[in-house]
Design goal:
Elements lengths: L1 E4 L9 E3 L8 E3 L16 E4 L11 E2 L2 H7 L8 H17 L5 H20 L3 H42 L3 H16 L1
Antiparallel strand pairs: 1-4, 2-3, 4-5
Helix pairs in contact: 3-4, 4-5
Length: 185
């Protein structure tokens, strides 16, 4: 995604939106929400940003006058940060543990078959959803066990798994917790 930086070079906290009465606020880190409206900070530049914790080193200035004049923030050129993010994903894929060829082939076949089913007719959508349920059951059965093994060996294994997956240890820990929660459903 596109991340933003303030004039001092810091990354702002998510922008908050009060959607009415209540104690819950919607949060967003979408770049165009940092335009200074409603006491939100004004972003000076943007950069690539990934959920794994990666932040691009190249920054791109934001011309808010151009954004406002155009009237369509979605038309503003954010290709630089997205290109940097895509390059990051390519690097992660190169470093990440490689799936066995037969498993890669099977996953590709499942994906292609589900896409074909969705295109056939509306009656096939129930079949696609049933297949997704089956895949979730497989994930729920195998993911938590792998997470338990990883958790048992803790720090050294977590560091190795994070490196193999091309993510920070914090992101790997988040995946571990995700799969542990699947086991508790």
């Amino acid at each position: 995604m596109v991340g933003v930086l303030l004039a001092d070079g810091s990354e702002p906290k998510p922008a908050l939106f009060d959607l009415g009465s209540g104690s819950n606020f919607h949060e967003s880190a979408f770049w165009r929400h940092y335009d200074g409206k409603f006491r939100r900070p004004v972003a000076a530049s943007m950069r690539g940003r990934c959920a794994c914790g990666w932040r691009g080193t190249t920054t791109y200035p934001i011309n808010w006058e151009e954004v406002r004049e155009n009237g369509d923030p979605d038309a503003y050129d954010t290709s630089g940060p997205y290109t940097d993010w895509a390059a990051h994903l390519d690097e992660v894929a190169e470093r990440a543990v490689q799936l066995p060829d037969d498993l890669t082939g099977l996953l590709k076949q499942v994906h292609e078959r589900l896409n074909r089913l969705m295109m056939e007719d509306d009656d096939a959508l129930a079949t696609v959803l049933k297949a997704c349920d089956e895949m979730e059951a497989i994930i729920a059965a195998t993911g938590p066990e792998a997470a338990r093994i990883l958790d048992r060996d803790q720090a050294e294994t977590l560091a190795r798994a994070a490196a193999d997956l091309g993510m920070t240890q914090e992101a790997a820990r988040s995946r571990l917790v995700h799969y542990q929660h699947l086991a508790w459903r």
